[in-house]
Amino acid sequence: MRAYLRLLTVALAATIIGLAYQPAPAALYIEDDVAKAVKSIAEAIAAGKSASKDAEALANKKGIDLDMVMNGFKARSDDGFGVGKAGPGVGTVDGIEALIQTLSKKEPSPAVTKKFAADWAQAGELSRAIAEVADYYATKHKKAKDNPKKWKEYNGDMKKYTEEFIKAAKAQDPAAITKAAKNLNDACINCHSEFK
Prior knowledge:
Number of helices: 8
Structural class: mainly alpha
Strand content: under 5%
Number of strands: 0
Number of domains: 1
């Protein structure tokens, strides 16, 4: 009987430990196939090509939800895109969302702008690609279904201000970068306040 109880205790402990160490749900990360698709859309947009068919295909792909796409805004440490090729874009900032928030609050110096402008433009291009995909959730997102017109309006603001941010980054214009980042951040806040 003691052996049976010990075996039962070990089995129960293993089960509890196994449950404690379950991986997080897939929606918490930007999946490899989602990341590749968003990057491809960003490259097409940067090249001046239409990416609407690819964005629609990603939005309609089985098992892909908007949260999975939006997770690209996170830092690399949280399995998002991060900023730049090798590390943070401003000090310790390594997420597109955090970058936009940081730049919306304080104008970067000309030296910092020159150093990171290409990384910021790339972050803007990824943001623009995410907005392109988000457009197709106007009738799919559980909260957007009630007001798809408003969803499209907010998403249009995101596209507009992302394009302004990309342009400012490419021009290495600190004041324009901060203005575009503030407008983009406000657009995100407005949309999230109604639809998140």
